[in-house]
Amino acid sequence: MMERSSIIAMFGANKTGKTCLINRLLQKLFPDKYDPTIETLFRYDIRTCEDKFTKLEILDTAGDFEFPDMLRKAIRSCHAFVLVFDVSDPQRTFGEVETLRQLIHEEKCTESLRVIVIGNKLDLVSKRDIAENKILDAIVSIDWGCTNITASANVTKIFLTFIQPFA
């Protein structure tokens, strides 16, 4: 029997915590310093709710998409997408999520896309920023019809819920 493999791409501007989220999932680690990513493919066997295992491949991207053809190729090869923005710096990072979401829709040409938007770095948000982030939550959930999660939630649970249809 051939093993199933699902490929999830982690997209977002640089310094939004994409690699940190992956490390929290795979190694239960929270890195204490920033280390820039070029592009990495992580492989992970994940247990489903039926006690089966499925292979999960997570494409971790750098966040600076200097080569649009490579970005388009990555989009075409992936089954699902995690779009990450920094809730403490939404002016810089949320626009990138909007652009990436549009590009994914153009490249995949299907309405049954699996896209989740994660607002990361919630611990760095002040109370005055909460109103702006509620507006972003509404854009993601109402206008885009995507699931929006803040990464203070259980990272393993986020990924398990997200990949369940592929298992």
Q: Would you kindly provide a brief summary of this structure?
A:
The protein is built from 5 helices and 6 strands, in the order E-H-E-E-H-E-H-E-H-E-H. With 167 residues, the chain is an alpha/beta fold.
- H and E order: EHEEHEHEHEH
Instruction: Determine the CATH superfamily.
Output: P-loop containing nucleotide triphosphate hydrolases
Instruction: Please indicate the percent range of residues in DSSP E strands (runs of 2 or more).
Output: 25-35%
Radius of gyration: 15 Å
> Describe the biggest sheet?
6 strands, mixed
For this structure, the CATH topology is Rossmann fold
Average pLDDT figure: 76
Number of domain units: 1
> Span from first to last CA?
14 Å
Share of helix, binned: 25-40%
- CATH-derived architecture: 3-Layer(aba) Sandwich
Envelope shape: globular
| Tally of separate helices | 5
State the name of the first-level CATH class: Alpha Beta
How are the strands ordered across the major sheet? 2-3-1-4-5-6
